[in-house]
Amino acid sequence: QVQLVESGGGLVQAGGSLRLSCTASGSIFSIDDMGWYRQVPGKQRELVATITRGGFKNYVDSVKGRFTISRDNAKNTVTLQMNNLKAEDTAVYYCNANLRLTFGSGRSDYWGQGTQVTVSS
To answer: How does pLDDT run across 17-29, given as a tens digit for each residue?
Structure first.
């Protein structure tokens, strides 16, 4: 049906950078919002950044000025550039897309499998 494949996670020292990418594939008619969320053990999943199909961006306060979200509609890809990483950014990062299927009648949320980001201090 729909697959969201993530890449770019890993281990980095504090102050370093990582770039996460997520590509959606399948019988997709259109994609509305795309975004990145993160989760640490024992805590709720947290919104990190979202971007609408028109390019409007939203960030959680803790990453403003450090992270940049972008998308390539032709490739159904959303990217999160993470600079000046901090230890508190350590989490599993999940890609999200709100989309319509080619033969569907409404919009639904889909999630990637998650990619680990670990920032050492």
So the answer is: 999 999 999 999 9
